[in-house]
Write a structure and sequence with these properties.
Blueprint lengths: L1 E6 L5 H12 L2 E6 L6 H14 L3 E5 L4 H8 L4 E6 L1 H10 L4 H14 L4 E6 L10 H20 L2 E6 L2 E4 L2
Parallel strand pairs: 1-5, 1-6, 2-3, 2-4, 4-5
Antiparallel strand pairs: 6-7
Helix pairs in contact: 3-5, 4-6, 5-6
Length: about 170
């Protein structure tokens, strides 16, 4: 079982994804892509960790997400990846091959024996960014979301805390 949960910032997508994961039962592993590059992000990460509680183990994977899925894969586990948007940003800023990394992620998802739930921001619904880097990020994030949506079993969109089934 694989699920992609899309939505805007503060839409409730992470809360929805966590609830779906916990409904499955098992050993919960949170695969975090965020990096605490400043104090505010560090505080966000700690708040999210506290909100998940002690039932969750956290694995940090800012760049090699496919390897984290492969190493965490076990039939009794549920993997929750939060989020693909930060992962895409990390790859872009590290000058990594986003297309190749996404292909590796798609392969890892297809091979996974455990449920994998992925969270991503839908960044293409806003205004056209005013600079080349921001436009490239928006485009890359959109392409990643399309490839992952095509590869997973289910896609949900969350807005204002309300889930809508896309696939």
């Amino acid at each position: 079982m694989s699920l992609l949960v899309l939505g805007g910032a503060r839409s409730g997508k992470s809360r929805y994804a966590q609830a779906r994961a916990e409904a499955l039962g098992g050993d919960f592993v949170y695969v975090a892509t965020a990096q605490a590059l400043d104090a505010e992000m560090g505080e966000r990460i700690e708040r999210h960790r506290a909100d998940r509680g002690p039932a969750w183990t956290t694995v940090e994977a800012p760049l090699d997400l496919a390897a984290a899925i492969r190493s965490g894969d076990h039939p009794d586990r549920v993997l929750l990846v939060d989020c693909l948007t930060l992962w895409t940003s990390n790859l872009l800023l590290a000058d990594r091959d986003i297309d190749a990394a996404t292909g590796d992620l798609v392969t890892a998802l297809a091979e996974a024996a455990c449920p994998v739930i992925l969270v991503a921001n839908e960044v293409g619904l806003g205004i056209v960014p005013d600079n080349a880097l921001a436009r490239r990020f928006r485009d890359e994030a959109g392409r990643v979301n399309q490839r992952i949506a095509a590869a997973v079993d289910e896609v949900m969109f969350v807005a204002a805390g309300l889930p809508l089934r896309f696939k």
